[in-house]
Structure formats: structure tokens, C-alpha cells
Amino acid sequence: MKRKVRVAQYGCGKMSKYLMQYVLDKGAELVAAFDMNPEIIGKDVSSVIGCDPVGVKISPADEADAILKATKPDVCVIATRSTMAELKEAFSVCAKNSVNAISTCEESLYPWNSSPDITKELDALAKEHGCTLCGSGYPDLFWGTMITNLAASSAHITKIKGSSSYNVEDYGIALAQGHGAGLTLDEFEKQIGNYNSLSSDEIGSLVEKGEYIPSYMWNQNGWLCSKLGLTITSQTQKCVPHTYEKDLHSETLGMTIKAGDATGMSAIVTTETAEGITLETECIGKVYAPEEFDKNEWTLYGEPDTTVIVNRPATVELTCATILNRLPQLIDAEAGYISTDKLPYSQYMIKPLHEYVKSL
Question: In CATH, what is the architecture of 6-137+316-356?
């Protein structure tokens, strides 16, 4: 591709600081930006990035349709919410304007097993308008391609076990409460653990109807099975509380969690496959004790057993860089909702972004 890649940014919060900077650093052209926060609307994107003026003002999200029509970007990076229901509008406005779009939304990585109706609708819309939609970010590489690449060094695999932990203090009160932080164990069992006894069919039905929100690993196991060519026979999720031996103060919750009460939880997804490989993966979200920190740990059991551990990952920056390095494949991909298990492995870009794009 001879010209610069034209990029729009949808959502100008914490993630966009890095997303927009990385796009500019790789020689792409930022042509539009959207948000719903009145405090930043009308300001140059440099107010978010922390750089010299770029010449692009942040526009209201409800003007995205008209601005995308006028600016005709090659791709839009969406960094707003975490579910497909919340992302549908942003994806749709991009697709209707034939703009390729990629999201940091965790569910968007592999929404086929959690929001199939929305995903099919977006897939049809993208095909109608000749563009590609997908999701990427930290899970794409650290729970996805890193694991499937590691599998290529195994002679035989019987089980894949993974866990990723995060401090709910960093993500706001809604997420902390959703993880049961601050509840007694009895309250946790009644409010969150009451779904633990459901069968694979029962929980799958609730997930597809939108009546039960699965953890990120629900989608991740679907992605891994698709990438590895595994046939899922059953999939369940259980939520297990975490506790601590001492009182822990939570700034986010505005309370002290008493010793023995829930500091958060593990959401454990177990997937059985026709090929005999079991996947057991968990998200651990809780109020951290002083000695705890983020960790990503995966083990492949078989011949041989292999473990990889990433301590203290810079999740925000890693998410944004992974999105950046997915842009050439997104632009070159066939039309539709194409989850990244169907794309080539991404790579670090030494040269400017446009030099890796083949189709424009």
C-alpha cells in the first residue's frame, strides 16, 4: 500500500491514549475521533494523548455516521465497552460506511458462543458493505496465539489449564461488585454461585439468551478450540469466591472487607472436546492483598508438560499494541465478522503500518 492508513478512534478514554499514539507512531493518519464525554468533545485528540496538537477534534459519538461518510477511514478502532450488546451500535455504524473495525471489547474476540444473534447480524452487515469486523487485545495474544503457538511444541496434549488475575480496584465499582467483592460467603452463594450446578446445555442456553453473562474465558475457550481444530462437546462455568485471612480495605467499594468474606472470585470455565483435550481456564478478579499482583499462567499437560508465566503484565499497553499489530490483517481480511482465530498470526511491525497492507 503506497498511502498512509487512515484511522478513526471510537472511544477516547484511557485505552485511546495509547491506541492513538501507537497509530501515529507507525505512520498512520488519524482522521476522526468520537466519544460521549462532554468534557473532552471539541478538544484536539492531543489532549488525550498528551502530545502536540494533531489537528483532529473529538466529535460526539452520535455524529459518527456523518463523519465516517465524509472522512472515509480504512479502519476504526473501537475502545468503549465490554459486551457485544454494548458494541453493536458502534460496529454497525462502521459497517454501514464500509469501514473495517476492530474492538478492545473482551467478548468481541470470539462472540460466536455468547452473542450468536448479534454476531450473525453484524457478519451479514459487514459482508453487505464489504468490510471486516473483529475483536482483539490482550486475550488475543496472551490467552490465544501464545498458547496455540506453545501447543505446536507438544507431541501430545491432554489438558490446557490457564489463569489470568486482575485487581478489581483498577476497574471501578460495577466490576468489583460483579465479582462479589465485599459479600459474605452466604451472600456470594445466593447471588453469584447459584448458577454453579447448571449443566452445559442449561448454562449455554442462558448465555445465548443473554440471561447469564459468562466470563471472558467462555469466549476464550471457544477461540482456542476453533484455532486448534477441537470439537466442543460440553462447556460449563463455575464462580468460586476468594477470601483473605485479614481485613482488606477497598477504595473502590468504599468499605473494609472483613477477613473470611469474599474479596472477589474465580470464574472457571471447563470445556470438554471430542478429541479428548480438556480446557480449564479461569479469570481471577479480586481486591488484592498487599503481596498480590497481576499474573498470567498457562500449562499444557501431555508430552511434555509446559508452563508459561507472565508476571505483572502491562495489560493496557499490551492490549493497544496487539490491536495495532492486527490492523494489516484486519484490512486485508475477507468481508464479515472474522474473529482472529481465522486470521494469520500477527507480527511486530518494523516499518510503517501501510507497508504491511496488501489490499489497498
Answer: 3-Layer(aba) Sandwich (3.40)
